[in-house]
Amino acid sequence: MKFVLASRNSHKLAELRRILDGLGVEAVLESDLGVDVEVEETGETFEENSLLKARAVMEATGLPAIADDSGLCVNALAGGPGVYSARYGGEGLTDPQRCQLVLQGLKGQIDRGAKFVSVVTACFPGGDVLSARGECPGTIAYAPQGENGFGYDPIFFVPGLRKTFAQMAPEEKNAISHRGRALEKFRTELEGYLRGLDQ
Ligand code: IMP
Fold first, then answer.
1. 22 CA to middle of ligand 1, Å?
2. For ligand 1, what atom is nearest to the CA of residue 98?
3. Catalytic residues
4. How far away, in angstroms, is 97 Cα from ligand 1 center?
5. Could you read off the pLDDT of 53-81 as tens digits, one per residue?
6. CA Rg, the chain, in Å?
7. Which residues have a Cβ under 8 Å from the Cβ of 118 and sit 6 or more positions away?
8. What tens digit of pLDDT does each residue of 143-183 get?
9. 31: buried, middle or exposed (CB in 10 Å: 19+, 13-18, 0-12)?
10. Does the beta carbon of 46 lie inside 6 Å of ligand 1?
11. CA-to-CA separations, 150 to 15, 86, 101, 187, in angstroms, rounded
12. What is the CATH number of the domain that holds 22?
């Protein structure tokens, strides 16, 4: 089965692709099909936004579409930036500037607990929907560390491994990340779904 990956974030695409490859499904990009769907993320939850993105791309291409909506939820920021992670501080900021904003927001805070959340959703042309959520708990580092990854990776510290996401190799991050976990659950759901179609 062929799926369209409903994302333009090259880092996310690489992570999604690496994990989906193992499933034996063919993943193509919106750009491979000559479509570029602009989706307004008006939902208040990762589930809603993930569904909005997947449904819009499925409708535009006529193919099953997979989308991920994800973000960083920080305890001391009342769960923020959450679904607003990509636009935290305004559209014009760079990833390092957004990291600094989170660090500033945590000045003087004792609780540095946080989690990354990812919801992966597939929409099928017949109307079926599959969805899976993954979370990765961690803390916010005191300063950015590491060069890998993207977004908030340099400030997201995983105590068990004593590293930020940005200090991990891609495989290391995928093995424990919110997106890796969501995709792992999604893989199980998709396998069940595809088996059901065969019967
Ligand atoms: P969206 O899901 O495209 O709306 O954006 C999610 C935003 O959350 C990204 O732009 C990043 O800022 C952040 N984010 C999501 N997943 C990760 C990750 O694995 N590492 C670092 N930042 C992430």
1. 23
2. 12
3. 69
4. 14
5. 999 999 999 999 999 999 999 999 999 99
6. 17
7. 46, 68, 69, 70, 133, 134, 135, 177, 178, 179, 181, 182
8. 999 999 999 999 999 999 999 999 999 889 999 999 999 98
9. exposed
10. no
11. 11, 11, 16, 24
12. 3.90.950.10
Taking the CA of residue 70 as reference, the ligand 1 atom at the shortest distance is 2
**Substitution candidate for ligand 1 out of 72, 133, 163 with most atoms within 8 A of CB:** 72
Residue pointed to by tokens 């991990």: 168
Q: Name the domain count of the chain.
A: 1
Q: How far is CA 85 from CA 68, 93, 157, 168, 188, in A?
A: 13, 11, 17, 21, 28
d(CA 70, ligand 1 centre) in Å: 5
Q: Can you give the residue range of the structural domain that contains 64?
A: 2-198
Ligand 1, from 70, 97, 156, 173: best to mutate by most atoms within 8 Å of Cβ? 70
| Global pTM exceeds 0.70 | yes
